[in-house]
Specification:
- It is a single chain.
- This protein is an all-beta fold and 184 residues long.
- The chain has a single domain, classed as Roll (Hypothetical protein YwqG fold), CATH 2.30.320.10.
- The chain has a ten-stranded antiparallel sheet with strand order 6-5-4-2-8-1-9-10-11-12, with no helix packed on it. Strands 3-7 form a two-stranded antiparallel sheet.
- A hairpin with an 8-residue loop joins β5 and β6.
- The radius of gyration is 15 Å and the shape is globular.
- The chain starts with a strand and ends with a strand.
């Protein structure tokens, strides 16, 4: 099974430590100033929120996972910066995406709600099998499938397909996650 992600726009008074796309990332104090000028905040996942859905224990179940994207190459050449922190973050960074050209509008938070879904469900999700994988080779191990048309966030909504985040050989080495864009 996979872990489906449904999103809804966050109210003004939401918990900054919630699992979410965009908005204000809450990170460890040690990460202050540890980001590139072209980097945007895509999401944070409170791993306790998904522990009961990860029956195969493929992900850590404590702390937070974060996905930041290097945007220097534009929408068609994004690079993943996936980080894990095993603790409670202390620093909220307001308007993280505001200074990155072309991504200024992605500061509204969209809260994540998790549910169990089929391995190949067409949606934004963690784990499973990539939707529309049409290559002869077996797909790499899927970390996250982002479907830009699955929500009203507006991020990459020109992409009629998916933004896949794949594990490297070691599924616990989040710093090795890489991106593949797939057009339907």
């Amino acid at each position: 099974m996979a872990i489906g992600i449904k999103v809804k726009k966050a109210p003004a008074d939401y918990d900054l430590g919630a699992s979410k796309f965009f908005g204000t990332p809450t990170v460890p104090l040690a990460w202050e100033g540890d980001f590139y000028e072209d980097e945007i905040f895509l999401c944070q996942i409170n791993l306790a929120d998904i522990a009961h859905l990860d029956r195969e224990n493929r992900l850590s179940h404590t702390g937070y996972l974060y996905i930041f994207l290097h945007t220097d190459g534009g929408d068609y050449n994004l690079e993943a910066d996936v980080r894990r922190f095993d603790g409670e973050p202390e620093l909220a960074i307001d308007d993280f995406n505001l200074e990155v050209e072309g991504y200024e509008g992605f500061n509204d938070a969209y809260l994540m709600e998790f549910c169990e879904v089929d391995d190949s469900k067409v949606c934004t999700r963690l784990l499973g099998i990539p939707s529309d994988w049409n290559y002869e080779d077996a797909p790499p191990k899927l970390f996250m499938q982002f479907d830009p048309l699955d929500s009203e966030m507006g991020f990459l909504d020109h992409l009629d397909g998916y933004l896949y985040f794949f594990f490297s050989d070691d599924e616990r080495e989040y710093s090795e996650v890489y991106i593949h864009e797939e057009y339907s």
